[in-house]
């Protein structure tokens, strides 16, 4: 009976959080935009009216029309088809960076926050990494590893690891001193179980919120690296490589840059607004003000 009641309470809390989240119009609109962007990216092979890689010199630099909704680029490729196909890679890079940064950041944060002996070393490592601007550190890592999609993910994952590690460390320092953790120690519960069950499960909310911000930062950073020519290969359609390719036609064929740039703005802004909404809803102190 207690287990059933606990399950019902957890389900009620999740439903209440969802209701508070969608009650904010900005968050609701942001969620709809994200769903549309992700859906268009996943369904790109069926939604694209043209082959995103097919060259057609006769149709180069065509303005938006009924045939080419977003116009064509300097090689006659359909910009709309390239935008939705490029979204698959840009969003995949952002999601992969979140996963990698979460794994590394959670591990470093838990080690630094729970084990006092390792705190000094890990904290200095985190501070050293955060002393460099994100884009400069990413450029350095990609230059060392070589320009490729995998290396961009690895570089950005390393760059954004300290952001998550600091939050996990700070929260762990508080949780490790709470009575239920002390009780688990007194009962002889193994350390790995205390960390994984009693500590980590109470860090889900800040990790989830920070993950949405890292997702947005990663999309921007990938676009920046590709724009500078040190990220993904120009042959691979991402929003960043499309903007890089269209910069020389600014003023002549602005649509080559405008539409992938608009996709970046919409995705990043939506992720930031959803992250703000999650932070307000998941934080009990802020939830009371809603």
Q: Work out the number of β strands.
A: 0
The biggest beta sheet reads:
none
Q: Which homologous superfamily in CATH is the superfamily?
A: MetI-like
Name the helix and strand elements from N-terminus to C-terminus, one letter apiece: HHHHHHHHHHHHH
Q: Which radius of gyration do the C-alpha atoms yield?
A: 22 Å
Task: Give the SSE layout.
Layout: H1 2-23, H2 25-42, H3 44-47, H4 79-114, H5 116-130, H6 134-145, H7 149-175, H8 179-186, H9 191-199, H10 204-228, H11 239-246, H12 255-282, H13 284-287
Q: Characteristics of this structure?
A:
OppC_N, cell membrane, mainly alpha, 290 residues, MetI-like fold, 13 helices, transmembrane helix
Notes on the structure:
Keywords: Cell membrane, Membrane, Transmembrane, Transmembrane helix, Transport. InterPro entries: BP-dependent_transpt_permease, MetI-like, MetI-like_sf, OppC_N. It is a multi-pass membrane protein. The chain is mostly helical and 290 residues long. The chain has one domain (24-29, 47-282): MetI-like (MetI-like fold, Orthogonal Bundle). It is built from 13 helices and no strands. The chain has helices spanning 2-23, 25-42, 44-47, 79-114, 116-130, 134-145, 149-175, 179-186, 191-199, 204-228, 239-246, 255-282, 284-287. The longest helix is centred in the first third of the chain and has 36 residues, at 79-114. The chain is elongated and about 75 Å long. The protein starts with a helix and ends with a helix. 36% of the residues are buried. Residues 1-12 have low confidence and may be disordered.
């Amino acid at each position: 009976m207690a287990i059933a009641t606990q399950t019902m309470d957890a389900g009620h809390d999740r439903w209440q959080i969802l209701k508070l989240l969608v009650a904010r119009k900005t968050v609701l609109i942001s969620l709809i935009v994200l769903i549309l962007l992700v859906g268009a990216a996943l369904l790109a092979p069926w939604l694209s009216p043209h082959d995103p890689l097919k060259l057609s010199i006769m149709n180069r630099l065509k303005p938006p029309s009924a045939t080419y909704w977003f116009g064509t680029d300097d090689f006659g490729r359909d910009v709309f088809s390239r935008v939705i196909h490029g979204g698959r890679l840009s969003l995949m890079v952002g999601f992969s960076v979140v996963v990698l940064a979460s794994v590394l950041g959670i591990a470093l944060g838990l080690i630094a926050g729970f084990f006092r002996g390792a705190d000094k070393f890990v904290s200095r490592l985190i501070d050293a990494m955060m002393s460099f601007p994100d884009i400069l550190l990413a450029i350095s890592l990609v230059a060392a590893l070589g320009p490729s999609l995998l290396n961009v993910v690895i570089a950005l994952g390393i760059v954004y690891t300290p952001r998550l590690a600091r939050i996990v460390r700070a929260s762990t320092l508080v949780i490790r001193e709470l009575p239920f953790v002390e009780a688990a120690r007194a009962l002889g519960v193994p350390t790995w179980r205390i960390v994984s069950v009693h500590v980590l499960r109470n860090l889900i909310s800040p990790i989830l919120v920070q993950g949405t911000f890292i997702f947005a930062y990663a999309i921007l950073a990938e676009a920046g690296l590709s724009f500078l020519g040190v990220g993904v290969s120009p042959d691979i359609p991402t929003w960043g490589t499309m903007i890089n390719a269209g910069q020389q036609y600014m003023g002549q064929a602005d649509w080559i840059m405008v539409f992938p740039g608009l996709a970046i703005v919409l995705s990043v802004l939506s992720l930031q607004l959803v992250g703000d909404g999650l932070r307000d809803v998941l934080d009990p102190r802020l939830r009371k003000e809603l």
